């Protein structure tokens, strides 16, 4: 097949790497891609939200499957655009409908869906600037800390955990009145804080059938010890030792099955990946949030652990044949460390030369996934984003995987490079 992959991050480089390793892929195009994808596929200068240009490219290049990496095109309705066009409707596109994408695009919609389908989650209420006084009263009734979530997309940064009632009120005013997250915080979900251990579970579904992919734990904060500002993600580990067979059985019975059946019952078309952010509280799963695509950087830890053919998985999802796909997993552990530009997630510099890449990953103990990178005028690799790349170490256990990740991280350098040195350390402590 000729395949088009939309996106430009580390998740998309991992997708591209997995897709081109399948004999079912003739040619892979990535739009717009990054310096890493340009080494293994053909980058195409297309905007991921320019649906007419994407559809023209698909028809002109005999594309037989489209894979959507990030959430923005899904929330804006790319799947509906394809399905409503007679020339495109028969081409499998991996991602949910616009209505299905509201599970991520609107925290309020997502919470209501969970309540309707009896999916365990934190108690919450939603407010707008018109109901600010009611929101203040609601905050006063909550125990501390209080969680505030922007209703719309905020690039993974729209969640605030407030340590006092006054901080929660001040932050809520900034979100609703001062547009802290723009249109995304015109509605805010205030919810109970869940105290437990966080993890992410990934599900592939064709709208009726599903397969549970390897789980992962990610690290959101910029600083070590989970301190400082939220980021798009600073690292990930898979598998997760505290997600044992009993816990995963509860996840499947209480969360995955009611979610897939709820979507089907409500006639919400959903073909694609479902990322379920969970809290393990005393061995019971509670849903923090849904995302309607794979996570980043969790994808860089999860995909290497899928042994069976990945293009077969994508095609089975896109053609409603997922019940016929047998997923096989690797037994090794993966640990991903994200390398970022200094200053991220606030102001950071671009165009710094990346040195030492040729030495990273060459002994097969780690994989190098580009994110915010580009090729310079002399063919050199340059930084081009906040999260620049992710190094995924592979090992028979978490200790070896971390050792391999950090050994390869040490090969790479650019001015003001930063990474967390404590990825996976909490899991090592749990194991002891």
From TrEMBL:
Q: Which InterPro entries match?
A: ATP-grasp (IPR011761), ATP_grasp_subdomain_1 (IPR013815), PreATP-grasp_dom_sf (IPR016185), PRibGlycinamid_synth_ATP-grasp (IPR020561), PRibGlycinamide_synth (IPR000115), PRibGlycinamide_synth_C-dom (IPR020560), PRibGlycinamide_synth_C_sf (IPR037123), PRibGlycinamide_synth_N (IPR020562)
For this protein, the record's Pfam families field holds: GARS_A, GARS_C, GARS_N
> Is the keyword Ligase assigned to this protein?
yes
Q: Domain ATP-grasp, which positions?
A: 111-319
- Could you give a single Gene Ontology term from the biological process aspect? purine nucleobase biosynthetic process
Q: What highest taxon heads this organism's lineage?
A: Bacteria
SMART domains, per the entry: GARS_A, GARS_C
For the protein in the UniProt heading, the enzyme class is ligase
Q: Which residues form a coiled coil?
A: none
Q: According to its UniProt record, which reaction does this protein catalyse?
A: 5-phospho-beta-D-ribosylamine + glycine + ATP = N(1)-(5-phospho-beta-D-ribosyl)glycinamide + ADP + phosphate + H(+)
Q: What's its EC?
A: 6.3.4.13
Q: Which UniProt keywords apply?
A: ATP-binding, Ligase, Nucleotide-binding, Purine biosynthesis
UniProt xrefs under Gene3D superfamilies: 3.40.50.20, ATP-grasp fold, A domain, ATP-grasp fold, B domain, Phosphoribosylglycinamide synthetase, C-terminal domain
Gene Ontology molecular function, alphabetical = ATP binding; metal ion binding; phosphoribosylamine-glycine ligase activity
Q: In which pathway does it act?
A: Purine metabolism; IMP biosynthesis via de novo pathway; N(1)-(5-phospho-D-ribosyl)glycinamide from 5-phospho-alpha-D-ribose 1-diphosphate: step 2/2
In terms of PANTHER family, this protein maps to: PHOSPHORIBOSYLAMINE--GLYCINE LIGASE, PHOSPHORIBOSYLAMINE--GLYCINE LIGASE, CHLOROPLASTIC
Identify this protein by name.
Phosphoribosylamine--glycine ligase
What organism, scientifically named, is this protein from? Belliella baltica (strain DSM 15883 / CIP 108006 / LMG 21964 / BA134)
- Upper lineage: Bacteria, Pseudomonadati, Bacteroidota, Cytophagia, Cytophagales
